[in-house]
Structures are given as C-alpha cells and as structure tokens.
Amino acid sequence: MDTTPPNRKASPPLRNGSQTVLADSANPYIHMATADNTRRTYRAAIRSFERWGGRLPTQPATLVAYLSDQAAILNPRTLAVYLTALGQWHHTQGLRDPVRDPVVRKTLEGIRRAHGRPKRLARALRLEHVAAFLAALQQQPDSLRKHRD
User: Fold this and answer.
1) DSSP state for residue 74 in the 8-state scheme
2) Which terminus of the chain is more exposed, N or C, with fewer CB under 10 A?
C-alpha cells in the first residue's frame, strides 16, 4: 500500500451541500486511513446499489427492497459489506445512516437465516506437509528470514 500522502489537488474536501465536512489539511491523512482495497470494495458496493436502481442518499425502505432483491443472488456476508459501504458513505457525507435502521438490520438477519452458509474452512495440514516445509527451511542459508519462517 502506498504510504505517501495523495496529491491534495486530486483530493478535494468532502462536502455536504455547501458545508465542508473535513478540513483540507486533513484529507491526505483521512485518505491514508482507509486501505485501497477497502475503497475499491466500497466503490463496488455503491455501483451495485446504483445499478440496481438505488440513489444516494437513500432511505431504509429502499435498502430493505435492495436487500430483498439481492438476497437470492449475493452471499449474506457480501450484503453485509455492501451495507457497511452504504452506511459509511452516509456517515462521510454527514447524513443520517439508514443502515442503522432496525428494519434494515432485521432484514439482513432474516437473509442470514434463510440463505446463510457456514464459512468454508481450510483443510488442516497433514504431518507430511509440515515435515516437508521444515526440510525446505533447513536447506536455506542462515538468515533472519529463515529463523522467522
């Protein structure tokens, strides 16, 4: 991840109407506080919501309809991430977060019960594999990396 502050000219202040929500000098650090992958995920979530027909800012009833329509298509964990992104968008804009509405939360709980699946667990390493890893490590030259591994 790039740790250099982004160009301030490319990062305009966040605004809610005509009111500046964050000071210009804080924007590079606010930008760096969120990982690039998180930003990409949030953008994908907002694109998905808008392609469905939703508009931002939105209302709880619209989110319930979105969740209901997407429940059979998307994994409940994906829907939860999408809701987080939509809530974060509202929070950043200084608006009331419709994701916190009890009806939205209950809808997501119902989707989890109806469509949820347990996470797939990775298979455990067998002793033969661990022995092979150790043999490969012992063949490496002495270094900090070898001791770490």
Assistant:
1) S
2) N
Write the CB contacts of 1 (distance below 8 Å, at least 6 apart in sequence).
35, 36
Let me know: does 82 contact 96? Beta carbons within 8 Å.
no
In the block, tokens 């808008």 appear at 50
Q: Give the integer Cα–Cα distance in Å for 94 and 82.
A: 19
Instruction: Give the count of beta carbons closer than 10 Å to the beta carbon of residue 29.
Output: 11
Spatial CA neighbour of 27 closest among 10, 3, 44: 10
∠ CA 59-63-69, nearest 5°, is 145
- Global pTM value: 0.65
Mean pLDDT of the chain: 84
Give the number of C-alpha atoms closer than 13 A to the C-alpha of residue 74, restricted to the C-beta side: 19
More confident residue, 136 or 4: 136
Q: How confident is the model at residue 133 (pLDDT cuts 50, 70, 90)?
A: confident
